[in-house]
Amino acid sequence: MWESVDTASAKREVQEVVMTPFLQRYMAYMVSLGINFEQARGSAMRTLRKHVELLGTSYEAYLQLITHDEAAPR
């Protein structure tokens, strides 16, 4: 019984990532430079995908936080 509870809680564990002020404002910086939001979002997605081997499961968390999109593709 205890094992199943521990396993369930491990699956629900929230992925925490380090966000710098620059990363928090990344999309706003791109938009302020005249880049369309969708183009900026696409650029962020491509860049994160290129580094998925380094980021591992953090990829999705970074994508959601950088693009400020709760429904970011997984």
UniProtKB/TrEMBL annotation:
According to its UniProt entry, this protein's organism is Effrenium voratum
Instruction: Supply the name of the protein.
Output: Uncharacterized protein
Organism domain of life: Eukaryota
